[in-house]
Amino acid sequence: MSDTPVSDAGLRRDHGPLKVGLTGGIASGKTAVSDALAALGASVVDTDVVAREVVAPGSEGLAAVREAFGDEILAADGSLDRRRLRTLVFADERRRRELEGILHPRIRRRTFEAVNAADGAYVVIVVPLLAESDFHELVDVVVVVDCDEATQLERLMARDDHDEAEARRMIAAQSSREARLALADHVIDNTGDRDALHAQVTRLHRALLAQADTHNTN
Length: 218
Prior knowledge:
Layout: E1 18-24, H1 30-39, E2 43-46, H2 47-53, H3 60-69, H4 82-90, H5 93-116, E3 122-126, E4 141-146, H6 149-160, H7 164-172, H8 177-183, E5 186-189, H9 194-217
Parallel strand pairs: 1-3, 1-4, 2-3, 4-5
Helix pairs in contact: 3-5, 6-7
């Protein structure tokens, strides 16, 4: 797969399967929802997975990041040291935008290729920063996985071993809960238990199948 950037014409609403943008705040449960939809037969493209692929060892993307940021962003085995890179760009807007300029076109290209090759009735595109980007304009349906901030904070601290101050900074760096919900066509409330979540996902899947039937016949 080439890493050459392409325009947004690579992903079109009127081409291919129904495109479902799945988003939510950090530690809201996006992966649990996308995994459940995949088990029900949906095609899933996770942009976090794509982001790791474009900077894999030996990739052109990693070479471009290394050229811009130096050898200090490499781990001992030659792979990208993500934590070190995050530290470098976290408090420096100019450097963050430089990194985004390197990675985002490559991530979008690979995402578009995967979406256009999907063969399910609909394809779920997991985009953590959908509300912060224009990605919502490129999908047919937006699904938001939602939970209150206290639940989000507790899960993030338990999952990634962050202290409370760091976890709060990470949550604050994202778009607000209200901004995400304003974009939603469907909302999954992930404050309950696993059974409650799967019941909602099953209802969502049925609704998306119905929308896909309409989309695919137009």
